[in-house]
Amino acid sequence: MKRIAILGSTGTIGVQALEVLSHLDTYEVVALAAGRNVERLAEQVRRYRPQVVGVADEAARRALRELLPGERMDIVVGDEGLVACAAYPSDIVLNAVVGARGILPALATVGRGARLALANKECLVAAGDLILRAMRDAGGEMVPVDSEHCALHQCLRSGQPEEVLRLVLTASGGPFRSWPKDRMAEVTVRDALRHPNWNMGQKITIDSATMMNKGLEVIEAHHLFGVPYDKIAVLVHPESIVHSMAEFVDGSMVAQLATADMRLPIQYAITYPERSPAPWPRLNLASVGALHFEEPDFDRFPCLRLAMEAGRAGGLAPCVLNAANEVAVEAFLREQIPFLRIPEVVEAVLERVPNEVPQSVEDVLRADGQARRLAELYVAKG
Ligand SMILES: NC(=O)C1=CN([C@@H]2O[C@H](COP(=O)(O)OP(=O)(O)OC[C@H]3O[C@@H](n4cnc5c(N)ncnc54)[C@H](OP(=O)(O)O)[C@@H]3O)[C@@H](O)[C@H]2O)C=CC1
Ligand SMILES: CC(=O)[C@@H](O)[C@H](O)COP(=O)(O)O
Ligand SMILES: [Mn+2]
């Protein structure tokens, strides 16, 4: 039996991960962590009987205890609780919490030599160098869950690092792929939450709509695969069937294709290097018919440009970009700012937080906090 901890178990990735585990019979769930959805968490605890359970705050802890009065489990709370779940002895930690909150549990996982199955891209964006250093020092490993990076991980199994010419990350283009710029000023929350191909949590769905998601994924790919930014390209592919590709020096392109179903990358990250049979629907290319590709539009999607610039700038810039974006997306979801204000808030914050090379996670968390406070000020201006 392999032991697994799932952080963000009540979210879209966490729920699908438990579904994957229900058909693999060699894994024991030892830790579950979530935020405030205690009803769903209680159901998961009843079924998987983890030894430790994390929740966001004291109110959630009390509510969970009331729902499970006789359950033998340690309940841990807040960001410290998340770290405790990641640090609890296990072979694999699936980090599927949303946002920069994923940094400390990622460090706790790789720092004890366990496998980090990584959905939480924000931790690599904000603290990629530190997490990779901790992973190398402790002999840990990271296997991506993000669909594009899972695809690239598979594509790169067919060549040596020095044979790679470039990585091509595919992007659906989101719900506004073909909208003219003036119409994008009228975007509602409902419009932006209507992703064409994927059913995901709200924050990543808005990131897909602004294409910030793809920018974050470029930075994620840079860290995961050690490839410089000038060798990472983005290509819009509205069908989300080709999940990404690696181009080799001889002109060969190796792509990974599958249905748009996150259960596959989740299972891959858990069972790697083995592949297990999967019971869900498979890709039928004849019924898909045609696949389309086009260049991204950096003018209508300035978040993509901002993220790629922040990645190239390095240092604290990606952390600042990510923190400002988290605040701006939250404000858009609360209808405090319009859609097109998201990149404006991010750009304004990036211009004001000085860029340095972080020496420690404390430097990263300090810049994250500073960027959030500034972003709140810009949000308050509307
Ligand atoms: N969804 C997808 O298909 C993909 C997601 N990802 C990445 O995976 C991550 C998760 O995404 P997704 O599942 O869509 O997000 P969701 O919003 O669906 O889920 C987020 C999870 O984080 C938990 N959470 C929120 N606040 C806290 C907190 N304070 N302490 C502990 N846990 C907390 C939530 O708990 P609760 O609900 O109980 O409050 C929930 O379990 C993101 O980084 C995203 O970018 C990457 C590729 C694809
Ligand atoms: C499923 C997944 O990995 C998401 O990150 C997805 O790729 C988002 O789609 P976009 O290509 O629209 O950003
Ligand atoms: Mn993705």
UniProtKB/TrEMBL annotation:
<feature type="binding site">
    <location>
        <position position="208"/>
    </location>
    <ligand>
        <name>1-deoxy-D-xylulose 5-phosphate</name>
    </ligand>
</feature>
<feature type="binding site">
    <location>
        <position position="10"/>
    </location>
    <ligand>
        <name>NADPH</name>
    </ligand>
</feature>
<feature type="binding site">
    <location>
        <position position="148"/>
    </location>
    <ligand>
        <name>1-deoxy-D-xylulose 5-phosphate</name>
    </ligand>
</feature>
<feature type="binding site">
    <location>
        <position position="121"/>
    </location>
    <ligand>
        <name>1-deoxy-D-xylulose 5-phosphate</name>
    </ligand>
</feature>
<feature type="binding site">
    <location>
        <position position="36"/>
    </location>
    <ligand>
        <name>NADPH</name>
    </ligand>
</feature>
<dbReference type="InterPro" id="IPR036169">
    <property type="entry name" value="DXPR_C_sf"/>
</dbReference>
<keyword id="KW-0414">Isoprene biosynthesis</keyword>
<feature type="binding site">
    <location>
        <position position="35"/>
    </location>
    <ligand>
        <name>NADPH</name>
    </ligand>
</feature>
<keyword id="KW-0460">Magnesium</keyword>
<keyword id="KW-0479">Metal-binding</keyword>
<feature type="binding site">
    <location>
        <position position="214"/>
    </location>
    <ligand>
        <name>1-deoxy-D-xylulose 5-phosphate</name>
    </ligand>
</feature>
<dbReference type="Pfam" id="PF13288">
    <property type="entry name" value="DXPR_C"/>
</dbReference>
<dbReference type="InterPro" id="IPR013512">
    <property type="entry name" value="DXP_reductoisomerase_N"/>
</dbReference>
<dbReference type="InterPro" id="IPR003821">
    <property type="entry name" value="DXP_reductoisomerase"/>
</dbReference>
<feature type="binding site">
    <location>
        <position position="120"/>
    </location>
    <ligand>
        <name>NADPH</name>
    </ligand>
</feature>
<dbReference type="Pfam" id="PF02670">
    <property type="entry name" value="DXP_reductoisom"/>
</dbReference>
<feature type="domain" description="1-deoxy-D-xylulose 5-phosphate reductoisomerase C-terminal">
    <location>
        <begin position="142"/>
        <end position="225"/>
    </location>
</feature>
<feature type="binding site">
    <location>
        <position position="217"/>
    </location>
    <ligand>
        <name>1-deoxy-D-xylulose 5-phosphate</name>
    </ligand>
</feature>
<feature type="binding site">
    <location>
        <position position="122"/>
    </location>
    <ligand>
        <name>NADPH</name>
    </ligand>
</feature>
<feature type="binding site">
    <location>
        <position position="195"/>
    </location>
    <ligand>
        <name>1-deoxy-D-xylulose 5-phosphate</name>
    </ligand>
</feature>
<feature type="binding site">
    <location>
        <position position="217"/>
    </location>
    <ligand>
        <name>Mn(2+)</name>
    </ligand>
</feature>
<feature type="binding site">
    <location>
        <position position="148"/>
    </location>
    <ligand>
        <name>Mn(2+)</name>
    </ligand>
</feature>
<keyword id="KW-0464">Manganese</keyword>
<comment type="pathway">
    <text>Isoprenoid biosynthesis; isopentenyl diphosphate biosynthesis via DXP pathway; isopentenyl diphosphate from 1-deoxy-D-xylulose 5-phosphate: step 1/6.</text>
</comment>
<dbReference type="InterPro" id="IPR036291">
    <property type="entry name" value="NAD(P)-bd_dom_sf"/>
</dbReference>
<feature type="binding site">
    <location>
        <position position="11"/>
    </location>
    <ligand>
        <name>NADPH</name>
    </ligand>
</feature>
<feature type="binding site">
    <location>
        <position position="13"/>
    </location>
    <ligand>
        <name>NADPH</name>
    </ligand>
</feature>
<feature type="domain" description="DXP reductoisomerase C-terminal">
    <location>
        <begin position="257"/>
        <end position="373"/>
    </location>
</feature>
<feature type="binding site">
    <location>
        <position position="172"/>
    </location>
    <ligand>
        <name>1-deoxy-D-xylulose 5-phosphate</name>
    </ligand>
</feature>
<comment type="function">
    <text>Catalyzes the NADPH-dependent rearrangement and reduction of 1-deoxy-D-xylulose-5-phosphate (DXP) to 2-C-methyl-D-erythritol 4-phosphate (MEP).</text>
</comment>
<dbReference type="Pfam" id="PF08436">
    <property type="entry name" value="DXP_redisom_C"/>
</dbReference>
<dbReference type="GO" id="GO:0030604">
    <property type="term" value="F:1-deoxy-D-xylulose-5-phosphate reductoisomerase activity"/>
</dbReference>
<feature type="binding site">
    <location>
        <position position="147"/>
    </location>
    <ligand>
        <name>1-deoxy-D-xylulose 5-phosphate</name>
    </ligand>
</feature>
<dbReference type="InterPro" id="IPR013644">
    <property type="entry name" value="DXP_reductoisomerase_C"/>
</dbReference>
<keyword id="KW-0560">Oxidoreductase</keyword>
<feature type="binding site">
    <location>
        <position position="146"/>
    </location>
    <ligand>
        <name>Mn(2+)</name>
    </ligand>
</feature>
<feature type="binding site">
    <location>
        <position position="201"/>
    </location>
    <ligand>
        <name>NADPH</name>
    </ligand>
</feature>
<feature type="domain" description="1-deoxy-D-xylulose 5-phosphate reductoisomerase N-terminal">
    <location>
        <begin position="4"/>
        <end position="128"/>
    </location>
</feature>
<feature type="binding site">
    <location>
        <position position="37"/>
    </location>
    <ligand>
        <name>NADPH</name>
    </ligand>
</feature>
<comment type="similarity">
    <text>Belongs to the DXR family.</text>
</comment>
<keyword id="KW-0521">NADP</keyword>
<protein>
    <recommendedName>
        <fullName>1-deoxy-D-xylulose 5-phosphate reductoisomerase</fullName>
        <ecNumber>1.1.1.267</ecNumber>
    </recommendedName>
</protein>
